[in-house]
Design a protein that fits this description.
The chain is α/β, with parallel strands linked by helices and 380 residues long. The chain has helices at residues 23-34, 55-60, 74-88, 101-110, 131-147, 156-162, 191-197, 219-232, 247-257, 272-278, 293-300, 311-318, 332-344, 350-358, 364-379; strands at residues 10-16, 40-46, 65-67, 92-95, 115-120, 150-153, 173-175, 206-210, 237-241, 263-267, 281-284, 305-308, 324-326. It contains 15 helices and 13 strands. α3 (74-88) crosses α4 and α7 (191-197) crosses α10 (272-278). The radius of gyration is 21 Å and the shape is globular.
Length: 380
């Protein structure tokens, strides 16, 4: 591996909230594992100083974690971030911070970084449209548009949402689909092992949800839907993978309904493909999404999916993922019936599911080669 001071390596600073295990972060790790790390060097500027799931692996792969805790003080962020840029001499700043990317890229431009990427991973910030929030969004959109030399979206819907006036004629903008590492899905299905871990029989119907406990993932609605499924199909169980600020509240909701014996909280897990392959249906009543990595992983596992209908979700189904799409305002009973129909429908074999995803744009190999080509074209 080349020394970090090698001037021929393209130095890229990814700006993220953290490198905890979640969709965007998992995609970035899939790219980092596959990319030519002698030609492209990844560092990560994070808004937290706590150790996160992927930090150790990032260091093992030659990257650096650089905390920049700013606590919503833009002047403090600019001061700290400018020092990071001066010390790192980065060729590319790649901001994965939705609206706040405007602040990041403005600071990067002010510090002479020539190549400045904004990457849109969702269709909104999830905040109430108060007057201050609308003003903030307008300023951030203006700063992104002014200072970004490249604007990427995880799906066309993410770009449509951020640039409602249109973006397809802007040569800076393009869609880069998430790629997942398909190798873990090549292992045999461990249905009995997962059931033993959960103290269930191999025949027990098992629903699964993978996602951080944040408002956009809508866990409270998920529990309501599961309760409706349980009313119709009494032997069903639900497993939840993830952590987050709303976890304790969801636990209280589960206890209040009396579902403690049927809902399994597994926390952050590194064996998500194994768990998906052993489950029966993925349920995702999200409030907003760009193109969720977990949906692509579920497709690789051959796992039936019942999910909120949104632009990025529809886009995924058009190019390789299969799912049942439902409007979020449909009653819980409608969602429950869709889940039961998915439980009773035939499922593709692991080989068929894997083959379908290998031939789609959703493999980590395709994603890494795409990002290599973009970095090389812009900064090479």
């Amino acid at each position: 591996m080349r020394d970090r001071t090698d001037p021929s390596a393209i130095r890229i600073l990814h700006v993220v909230n953290s490198m905890a295990r979640a969709g965007l972060e998992t995609w970035l790790m899939n790219v980092m594992r596959r990319i030519d790390r002698e030609r492209f060097r990844f560092d990560f500027c994070t808004a937290t100083d706590r150790e996160c799931d992927y930090d150790e692996e990032i260091r093992a792969l030659g990257g650096t974690i650089i905390p920049c805790v700013w606590n919503h003080n833009i002047l403090r962020f600019n001061h700290r971030f400018s020092r990071i840029l001066r010390e790192g001499r980065y060729d590319v700043v790649h901001a994965h911070a939705y609206g706040f990317a405007g602040v990041v890229l403005r600071a990067a431009a002010g510090n002479g970084v020539r190549h400045r990427f904004a990457h849109l991973h969702t269709t909104g910030d999830g905040k109430h449209p108060t007057l201050p929030r609308r003003v903030y969004r307008g300023v951030m959109r203006h700063w992104v548009n002014r200072h970004a030399t490249r604007i990427l979206g995880c799906a066309a819907g993410a770009l449509d949402a951020f640039f409602p006036a249109g973006w397809k004629n802007d040569p800076r903008m393009r869609v880069v689909y998430y790629g997942v590492d398909l190798r873990p899905f090549e292992a045999g299905v461990d249905r009995e092992g997962v059931r033993r871990e959960l103290e269930l029989t191999p025949e027990t119907p098992l629903l699964i949800h993978v996602g951080s406990f944040t408002p956009q993932k809508n866990h409270r609605r998920l529990i309501e839907i599961f309760d409706a499924v349980r009313t119709l199909r009494g032997d069903v169980h639900l497993t939840l993978i993830g952590i987050g600020p709303l976890l304790d509240g969801v636990r209280r909701q589960v206890r209040a309904i009396g579902l403690e014996e049927r809902v399994h909280f597994l926390g952050s897990r590194s064996d998500v493909p194994r768990l998906m392959q052993a489950a029966d249906v993925m349920v995702m009543p999200s409030v907003r999404e760009g193109m969720p990595v977990t949906m692509i992983e579920a497709g690789a596992a051959g796992l039936p999916i019942v999910i909120t209908e949104m632009p990025g979700i529809r886009e995924a189904t058009e190019i390789g993922c299969e799912a049942t799409l439902l409007a979020l305002d449909r009653p819980n009973e409608v969602w429950a019936n869709a889940v039961i129909e998915a439980l009773d429908s035939p499922r593709p074999s692991p080989a068929e599911a894997l083959s379908r995803m290998t031939e789609s744009p959703f493999s980590s190999e395709v994603s890494a080669r795409t990002m290599e080509a973009i970095y090389h074209h812009d900064a090479g």
